[in-house]
Every structure is written in structure tokens, then in C-alpha cells.
Amino acid sequence: MGELSKTLEEYIKISGDFYKKIMEILEENYCWKCPMRTNSGKTFCRELDAWIRLDNALECGVREKLEYKLSPEAINIDISSRNGSAKSSSCRT
User: Fold this and answer.
1) Could you tell me the pTM of the whole model?
2) What is the three-state SS of the chain?
């Protein structure tokens, strides 16, 4: 197995671990006070929130590493257009 494959496997494990950690934080600190908590098993709002936060963190991390290489116009490019979604406005968590 090549170095790239090993690195991607490591990323998959790490991101899965952080997904689990985010899910626990949401449940313990936020979801218990949500009026929709009784429907969360049907709406999967906690899972979706964790996924969105991880996706945003990945995009922000990559964008941060590229900022010094890119022109101001390129920094604002909509990298989310690959899947038709809207560009995220900021790197807030």
C-alpha cells in the first residue's frame, strides 16, 4: 500500500474519531435542550450538524494552508461548486 493510501486511511480513522467526539459533545451540551430532541432519531439533526461542522473544518483547514499561495481572487473561489452546494461564508465552528 502506498503512502497516499495509508495517509487517507489514517484520515478516515481520525475523522471518524472526531465525528464520534462531536456527536457526544452535541448530545451532552446542546441537543438535550433542543425542542426537536424527541424527533432527532427521525431527523438525524445531530448527525447532520456533526457532518456539516467536520466538512467546514476540513474546508477551512485546507483553505488556511493555501491562502499564502493564492491571489485574493482565488481565495474567494467557490470550492464547494464541485457538488453544487453554496460556498461557506466563513471558517467559524
Assistant:
1) 0.67
2) CCHHHHHHHHHHHHHHHHHHHHHHHHHHHCHHHCCCHHHHHHHCHHHHHHHHHHHHHHHHHHHHHHCCCCCHHHHCCCHHHHHCCCCCCCCCC
